[in-house]
Design a protein that fits this description.
By secondary structure, the protein is α/β, with parallel strands linked by helices. 41% of the residues lie in helices and 16% in strands. The chain has nine helices and eight strands. Strands 7-6-5-4-3-2-1-8 form an eight-stranded parallel β-sheet. Helix 2 crosses helix 4 and helix 4 packs parallel to helix 5. The longest helix is centred in the last third of the chain and has 17 residues.
Length: 226
Amino acid sequence: MPPTGKRVTTLEIVGCKRSGRKIVALTAYDALFGRLLDEAGVDVVLVGDSVNTVLAGQETTLSATLEQMIYHGRMVRAGVERALLIVDLPFLSYQVTVEEAKRNAGRVMQLTGASGVKLEGGQAMYETVRALVDIGIPVMGHVGYTPQSVHALGGARVQGRGAEAGERILADAKALEEAGAFAIVLELMPAGVATPGSQALEIPTTGMGSGPGCDGQVRVLDDRRG
């Protein structure tokens, strides 16, 4: 999608799946790289809580704060004029109560100018996603390997191996779709799970280490420089 001066919307991202055009998503943490990605024609710019590991040097994303995400979200917005801008909700900013999730997601939207937020988790996040969508906050989901659950998952490990585990991931993705998410990240799972999972959903998927069968790919920009 070349730069047009018109902002990409969530409806256009959903439309990519219907038209068969692959979605390109990359992370950015500041105005400079936000601008470079925007001018390159990237569809989605994600301000990921990976900023905590990539730039802040922390071992996991768990200590990322809401203020940190808002700060980097505002910087990236200064450089992004066309791409869809999505900001990660950090650990414990949305898991405690639905009301707190609404308040924190609303702050992110209000203070960064983002077009939506991303959160991790499947069926357990149904009510939260539904509540955010109901008040006008677009939500991108994230299932499979979810970095905020790194300790519960036993590290950065491939998820969905085995029929039962694969079915659980699909159930998580389906729950997010039913709750109103406009797209879902499928991270670190076998292509044999991600590809049929993508085909079973009406909303688009972006894969990260999950094979080529997703509706697009999302990558951490700093990893691409390595």
